[in-house]
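Ticket 4471: requesting a sanity check on a complex prediction with zinc ion. Repro inputs:
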Amino acid sequence: MHLYDAQKIQIYNTLSGQKETFKPIEDGYVGMYVCGPTVYSNVHLGNVRTFMSFDMVFRYLKHLGYKVRYVRNITDAGHLENDADVGEDKITKKARLEQIEPMEVVQRYTVDFHNILNTFNFLPPSIEPTATGHIIEQIELIKMIMDNGFAYEVNGSVYFDVHKFNETNDYGVLSKRKLEDLIHNTRALDGQSDKKNPQDFALWKRAEPQHIMRWPSPWSDGFPGWHLECTAMSTKYLGDNFDIHGGGMDLKFPHHECEIAQSEAAKGQTPVNYWMHANMLHLNGQRMSKSTGNTVNPSELLSGDNAFFSKAYAPSVIRFFNAQSSYRSVLDLTDDGLLASEKGFFRLMDAINLLEDLKPSSESSFQVAEWRQKCYDAMNDDFNSPILIAHLFEAAKHINQVKDGNASLTSEDLELLKKTMNAFTFDVLGLVNISKAETGTDKLSGAVELLIQLRQDARANKDFALSDKIRDELAAKGIQLNDGKDGTTFTTN
Ligand code: AMP
Ligand code: ZN
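Returned structure tokens:
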């Protein structure tokens, strides 16, 4: 008997627009693919949020006893600056600007990505394939799509024929778009394009002479279209029809729509049973995005060295903050939100630390078994982590009452409570039990807050020599004081 036999998960499936009972293709096994990063720059916290949400899904499925094959790719070629198949390859551009090899760009940012994920206590995926490692598979897919009449070659490039495909299939099935509307809303081709229709997308692009990343193919020396790599890698490792495909909301169209079209055109079947989309992280009310520069890098948030936040936050506090809202909701990253999460996180850790010292009684005043099932019910309801956390806080309240002698637990219930708290807090949510002192940031904050207070006293006493000395000496040690209308905060560098 596995836990998954007793716990039935409901997953919100973008394809049907509703929650569905999750039934894996093969009993006890789950195949899950998540679109990974394009490694041309440091990942920002928005990217981390999406991967963190799927790390939690992976963790919960594993906790239930499923054997999960989790594939998350690295996009190291083929992702152009523009979704309309024009512009430079993002990695090639970075290599040109920095005068290094594209593979040096890839190496640098893949290492950065892994370091960041390790800092946030991610579980590694089962397979992490790269686009450049699967060029042959991508060429084979193009051949299949061409043989089935859904793609055409022009001047060494190959395009997917969306109009032809839509005659027999439904282009727009995932994003709920209609081809007629797309036609209406897309600009006409400018005469320069090789495409028959603006809605068509590249499967293979002939490389211009200056394009460094290129591979031989039956059509030209060139490179694959971005959408193709995910179809090639997901189906290679998970089969032509697999359980779960995830990614950020912004990938729903055109990326995931095109993946469905490619698979149906090549293999005649839909690739994925459950499409999951994680919602966006916002900063200052706007989506965090590399292209607009509205970003905070994880290292800036962890060190406190940024223009937005009053202090440094520990990785587990950021994880906790993320889990306090549903993966399907937009989440606004704010200092107030992080401060509240930090308080909540340590309240939970304090309660867990107390568990070891609690003395059992002959009776329980807390229905632990019922409470445990409520925790599962929350996660079974489309991975509703904020509700799970509310239940963990309910248990924390009882733990404190037991410690104060106002409530009781039998030894059996105490064991079950410990086991369940640890399982959900550490295995499923992926938090790490750190103390306030261990974070380091708190000791520093405490000391600097004291100096800020002394500086304020000095100013109130008109002792400006002392107040300036405090500010300047802190600045010399890399701690900047910032006077704002709500008081003084500090940043470190
Ligand atoms: P990219 O490297 O741009 O392909 O993005 C990697 C992943 O991060 C994709 O799944 C995106 O959907 C996701 N992503 C990008 N921006 C955000 C954001 N602001 N919030 C959450 N996820 C994001
Ligand atoms: Zn993808």
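Notes from triage: The chain has a mean pLDDT of 93. Leaving this open until the requester confirms.
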